[in-house]
């Protein structure tokens, strides 16, 4: 008697055919955490470059560097362009708002307000995103998420108090609030309308749109590059390559699969990472108040996103077994 193996469906997905985020559930969180480290490094770099480049010129050079890197990448990767005219328009709007308006407004705010205060105001964006995504996008409002955000905001307040220099204007406060709204709007726009598109192509096109919008600052950039030390210019190029081209692609990968409110709360780690990087790279020993604020940021982030990260790591471990 011959025994035959049961037929298997040729339509059943194989492990290799599944998306990376399904095969390795921890990958989106790893991408998000790397993004936070890269974004935090930009604050350390901007501290030196701001004395030599005005907000618009710095934004343009940053966009040009990012656009050059991603355009070179596209020579070896087939772009998957947006599938509708509406998607193209949203990508253009998102790119101008994120890579041009947000960067220029934030840079301008830090010229008329203490950097720590600007950072504190801008970091209300995760709270805006969490509430809007929970109520409108129906992601829910877990108590751990809201509690973690509030704890981290308290930590950011301590860091701000420790670094406050007394430089503050009404204009700076308004610009910081505008930057926070732009931050929140861009994240929600990307999550709701663009997360089904190819994230690498969307990031590339968005940066190109931001570059075009920043071209009005070309005369200023030419003059400031000629006057600035080469090392400072290379620092701004770094802003375009790492915190923009690389980090935003990692962010785009993460936001495809993670809830917007939950993912954006990971940016509450940035102030703590900035304190740590300033200590390591610039040898700036943080005041006790700033160190305490950094610890609070970490505690808040752990409360907000810790259970999801642990769950993803466990899922990845089970899958590897």
From TrEMBL:
The chain crosses the membrane at residues 26-46, 58-76, 88-109, 115-137, 144-164, 170-189, 201-222, 228-250, 262-283, 289-310. Belongs to the EamA transporter family. It comes from Brevibacterium metallidurans. This is DMT family transporter. Keywords: Membrane, Transmembrane, Transmembrane helix. InterPro entries: Alkyne_AA_exporter, EamA_dom, EmrE-like. SUPFAM superfamilies: Multidrug resistance efflux transporter EmrE. It holds the Pfam family EamA. Residues 30-160, 172-303 form the EamA domain.
């Amino acid at each position: 008697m011959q025994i035959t193996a049961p037929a298997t469906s040729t339509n059943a997905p194989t492990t290799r055919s599944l998306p990376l985020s399904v095969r390795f559930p921890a990958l989106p969180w790893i991408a998000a955490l790397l993004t936070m480290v890269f974004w935090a490094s930009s604050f350390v770099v901007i501290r030196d470059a701001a004395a030599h480049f005005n907000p618009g010129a710095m934004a343009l050079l940053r966009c040009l560097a990012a656009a050059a890197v991603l355009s070179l990448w596209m020579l070896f990767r087939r772009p998957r362009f947006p599938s509708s005219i509406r998607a193209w328009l949203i990508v253009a709007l998102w790119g101008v708002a994120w890579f041009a308006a947000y960067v220029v407004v934030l840079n301008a705010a830090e010229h008329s307000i203490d950097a720590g205060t600007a950072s504190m105001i801008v970091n209300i964006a995760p709270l805006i995103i969490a509430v809007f995504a929970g109520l409108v996008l129906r992601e829910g409002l877990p108590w751990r998420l809201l509690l973690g955000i509030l704890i981290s905001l308290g930590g950011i307040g301590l860091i701000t108090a420790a670094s406050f220099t007394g430089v503050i204007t009404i204009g700076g406060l308004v610009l910081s609030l505008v930057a926070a709204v732009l931050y929140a709007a861009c994240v929600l726009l990307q999550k709701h309308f663009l997360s089904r598109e190819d994230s690498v192509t969307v990031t590339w096109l968005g940066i190109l749109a931001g570059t075009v919008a920043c071209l009005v600052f070309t005369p200023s950039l030419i003059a400031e590059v000629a006057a600035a030390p080469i090392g400072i210019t290379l620092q701004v190029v770094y802003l375009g390559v790492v915190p923009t081209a690389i980090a935003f692609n990692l962010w785009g990968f993460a936001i495809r699969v993670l809830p917007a409110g939950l993912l954006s709360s990971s940016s509450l780690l940035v102030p703590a990472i900035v304190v740590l990087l300033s200590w390591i790279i610039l040898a700036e020993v943080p005041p006790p108040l700033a160190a305490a604020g950094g610890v609070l940021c970490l505690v808040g982030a752990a409360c907000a996103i810790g259970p999801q990260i642990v769950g993803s790591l466990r899922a990845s471990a089970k899958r590897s077994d």
